[in-house]
Amino acid sequence: MGIKHLLPKKNQYLIVADRGFGNFRIMNILEKFGFNYLIRIKESLKMKFGIAEIDLTKIPKQQAKYSKIVIKTDPEKKDRFLTVSFSKDKNLKQGWFLVSNLEFNKLQNIYKNRFQIEKTFQDQKSSGFNLEKTKIINYARFKKLLFCSYIAQSLLILLGEYIHENLDHIKKKFPGI
Fold first, then answer.
1. What distance in Å separates the CA atoms of residue 45 and residue 149, rounded to the nearest whole number?
2. How far is it, in rounded angstroms, from Cα 23 to Cα 39?
3. Mind listing the pLDDT tens digit for each residue in 35-70?
4. Domain residue spans of the chain
5. Reduced to 3 states, what is the DSSP secondary structure of residue 58?
C-alpha cells in the first residue's frame, strides 16, 4: 500500500472490490493504511469480529430491500457496517452482501455502478468483440488490437448516448424507426 503517500491528502478514497477480495486480511490492510472500502463478500464468509460471529446465511432475505448491521469492533478502529442488499433488478438473481467501514447511505449505488466496468470487460471478451477467440499470439499485436477495440467501444458508447439523448428528434426526422 505504498501508493497512499503518492495520493493527494485532501481527498477521501474508497476502494470498491468484488468477491475475490472479500476477506478480512484485505479489509484489515486497507484500514491499516487509511483507506475506506466497499467490498462484496460471499454469503459463506464467516464474519468474525472479536468474539462475535455472524452467519450471513441466516439473515432473512425477504426483509426490506436493504438491511444494515452495525458491528462494533475494537474501540480504536472504525465500526464495520454490513449491509445486505437485495436489488429488485430482474437481471440480478441474488442479493449482494457488502461490507464497508463507512455508513451505507449511497454505497449501494456506488457498487451497482461498478458493474458498468464488468459490462465493459464482457463487451471485450464474449458478448462483443470476442477478443478471447482471436488467434493472436504476439503480445504487442494483441495490445494494438485491444487498444483499437477500446476506441471502437468508446465511440459506440458515445453514439449510444447521443441517440438516447436525441431519440425524440431522431424519431421525428425518421418516422419509420
1. 37
2. 9
3. 888 888 877 776 665 555 667 666 655 544 555 555
4. 4-114, 129-173
5. helix
